[in-house]
Design goal:
single chain, alpha/beta, 9-stranded mixed sheet, two-stranded antiparallel sheet, 11 strands, globular, binds manganese (II) ion
């Protein structure tokens, strides 16, 4: 397969490098990733400054294009300008830190996969369940397996898979659980502090979400040491409400 690989942690992040090396054994992989960390930029694109894609190489074993833009920019630029043919699959990651529940809305990792899905390409967003990312190689092994399955089965146009993998050795992972996106809340997301000039400032954290104890939700599935796979749709229309509000009397 021809695979476009990107992330939101920057082209030199260990997660994307581990994935590159794992996928390269059987696939043609092109890395097009931000030139610096762009975590939590969501689906932002760059409109008011020029984009540059510089070829970079690390020890001759890792090559790619470093883009001074967002993850969504990387995918868009890759599809329209850099790649000569449409990729068969777009993979974003591996992000250190789970992208489950409400994080899906803020994540640059997820947005890159979403950008690919907007063009009808099958895509995976991949994250591991810890900030340390101690087992990227093991997670990458899981991704190679999942990529084959997605290539074989295909995905509906406009749908991508949000994959979260326990940060554990390959064989310590319990298996795969198909899950739905949680809507957990962040308790005390802000740290209120005082700067050296006695002015208040706020530092946003928000790593710890609280989920309903439902094993079919992404967060709990991951916490139970399963690879959590959630299909996500680009079309955010609420069709139930659409039908319902059609019956409302809207005019005076
Ligand atoms: Mn990130």
């Amino acid at each position: 397969m021809q695979i476009l690989l990107t992330n939101d942690d920057g082209i030199y992040a260990p997660g994307i490098q581990a994935l590159y090396h794992a996928l390269r054994a059987d696939h043609q992989v092109t890395v097009i990733a931000p030139d610096r960390e762009r975590s939590a930029v969501g689906h932002a694109i760059t409109l008011h400054q020029p984009l540059r894609a510089n070829r970079v190489s690390l020890n001759a074993h890792y090559n790619g294009y470093a883009v001074n833009g967002t993850p969504a920019d990387c995918v868009k630029l890759g599809i329209y300008e850099i790649l000569e043919t449409r990729p068969d699959l777009v993979i974003s990651g591996i992000n250190p830190g789970a992208n489950v529940g409400v994080n899906v809305n803020y994540s640059g990792t997820v947005a890159a996969a979403k950008e690919a899905a907007l063009y009808g390409l099958p895509a995976l967003a991949v994250s591991v369940h810890s900030r340390e990312g101690l087992h990227f190689e093991d997670a990458a092994r899981w991704v190679t397996v999942l990529a084959e399955t997605v290539a074989r089965q295909g995905l509906p146009r406009g749908t991508f898979l949000n994959v979260n993998i326990p940060d554990l050795p390959y064989d310590a992972i319990a298996g795969i659980r198909i899950s739905r996106q949680g809507n957990g809340v962040f308790p005390d997301s802000f740290d209120k502090r005082t700067d050296p000039r006695d002015r208040t400032y706020y530092w946003q954290g928000g790593d710890r979400q609280v989920f309903d104890p439902d094993p079919d939700i992404d967060g709990p599935a991951l916490a139970a040491n399963y690879v959590s796979i959630t299909p996500i749709k680009c079309d955010m229309t609420d069709y139930d409400t659409l039908a319902q509000i059609k019956t409302w009397r809207w005019e005076h």
